[in-house]
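Handout, page 2. Input:
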Amino acid sequence: MTKKGVRETIVRIKIKEIDDGVSLVREHLPSTAQEFRNLGLVKDGIYKQIEFAIENVFDICAIINTDLALGVPGEDEDILEHLIQNGIISRAMREKIHGMKGFRNIIVHRYGNIDDNLAFQLLKENIGDFFSFNAEIEKFLKMHHSVASFSGPDR
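Output:
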């Protein structure tokens, strides 16, 4: 039996990029919406870092789905469902990822019309979701790695 591998190095690089970007956002996120609205270019940088982190979340999900041949997705939702069915992410995480995707779409498609007050509130309340996602993926990588190591070479 051949155990399919995950491009673990790429996934770990993307996890680090998420950690680094989200940590920068946390560091520069002020305590009030008024201060956030007045950040100028720093606010724009926060939006771009969050956009990049969300894209990395979806990249990681797609890499795992592809590398483990979990199924051919028609859309992002299919990938998330495959990951849930295989115990890689939780249903609660899927809901958090849906929220991330909605936030990303607002950033990308309506950038000039973003409600900074709402964006600030969403960031304050949900920034930890990125770390939760990374933790679930790290747990999967550890389990997957130990199973792959345990099964040894094919004979």
